[in-house]
Structure to design on (307 residues):
């Protein structure tokens, strides 16, 4: 796992003493995270066939937009979701389409006359995802922390989400390899991937806002008071441990479209903890104000969850 923090133009390493124990409840659903669609900017013909616009790889900027819109509201960081006017002032909120397209450009997509393309045929790779999200966030709010984990453990993504952070996950699709008689072997072959926003869990399932919408066993959730005129469609998938090439993965059991679906990467972002080098440099008053702010935000999230 890697972590970067840029604070007031300085590179700061978080103290190991800020780590928390992974104390999470058996079930949790983070409220008020929007559920934008990766198909909003696709242009279709009368038969529903794609003519142009967004590509299938727009799941990545869409999943990240879900998280950053939430963060802009709950941490009172409006620049995360605003645009600049001609004088460089941050004004007006971006629409979901505008924010997703800003993130897509940061991740290496190009747009010519409404037709979008990305840097690789296979989707947004890890480096473009991480650097694009980092550049977008830090051009607006330089204090934010970004963390990521390859083959994330379930404990890690749950702990990140529960401590008021946002988490996006990349999943890999695999099909079983058949032998010459058509029987299934114990070998799988990759066939693509996807990205979703992680929003919660219960004892047997993980919950996501899926940019592709309406997959799996789902239920409608309407989160009022968020500033978003948007319902959230929460998808729940049963999970289990799966071993690939001798390495453990979290498998989504009832995800359609592939024989085996594995969580391959998780990315989180957050406001830094008070006991960073910056907190130590600025002194106790800064740290006290910051702790109070964090507690106030946690209370808002818990009240919304209980409502």
């Amino acid at each position: 796992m890697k972590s970067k923090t840029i604070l007031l133009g300085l590179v700061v390493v978080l103290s190991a003493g800020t780590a928390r124990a992974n104390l999470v409840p058996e079930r949790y659903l983070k409220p008020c995270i929007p559920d934008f669609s990766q198909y909003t900017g696709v242009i279709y013909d009368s038969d529903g066939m794609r003519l142009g616009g967004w590509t299938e790889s727009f799941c990545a900027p869409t999943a990240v937009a879900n998280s950053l819109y939430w963060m802009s509201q709950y941490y009172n960081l409006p620049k995360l979701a605003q645009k600049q006017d001609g004088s460089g002032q941050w004004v007006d909120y971006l629409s979901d389409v505008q924010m997703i397209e800003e993130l897509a450009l940061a991740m290496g997509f190009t747009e010519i006359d409404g037709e979008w393309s990305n840097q690789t045929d296979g989707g947004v790779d890890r480096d473009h995802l991480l650097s694009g999200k980092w550049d977008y966030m830090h051009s607006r709010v330089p204090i934010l922390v970004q963390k990521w984990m390859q083959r994330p453990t379930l404990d890690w993504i749950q702990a990140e989400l529960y401590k008021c952070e946002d988490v996006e996950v990349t999943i890999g699709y695999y099909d079983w390899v058949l032998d010459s008689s058509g029987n299934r072997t114990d070998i799988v072959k990759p066939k693509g991937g996807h990205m979703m926003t992680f929003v919660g869990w219960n004892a047997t399932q993980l919950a996501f806002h899926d940019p592709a919408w309406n997959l799996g066993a789902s239920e409608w959730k309407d989160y009022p008071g968020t500033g978003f005129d948007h319902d959230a469609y929460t998808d729940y998938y049963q999970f289990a441990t799966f071993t690939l090439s001798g390495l453990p993965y979290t498998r989504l059991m009832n995800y359609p479209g592939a024989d085996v679906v594995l969580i391959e990467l998780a990315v989180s972002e957050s406001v830094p903890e008070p006991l960073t080098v910056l907190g130590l440099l600025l002194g106790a008053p800064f740290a006290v104000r910051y702790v109070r702010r964090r507690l106030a935000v946690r209370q808002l999230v818990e009240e919304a969850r209980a409502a």
Notes: DSSP finds six helices and 17 strands in the chain. The domain at 2-12+24-272 is CATH 3.90.70.10 (Cathepsin B; Chain A).
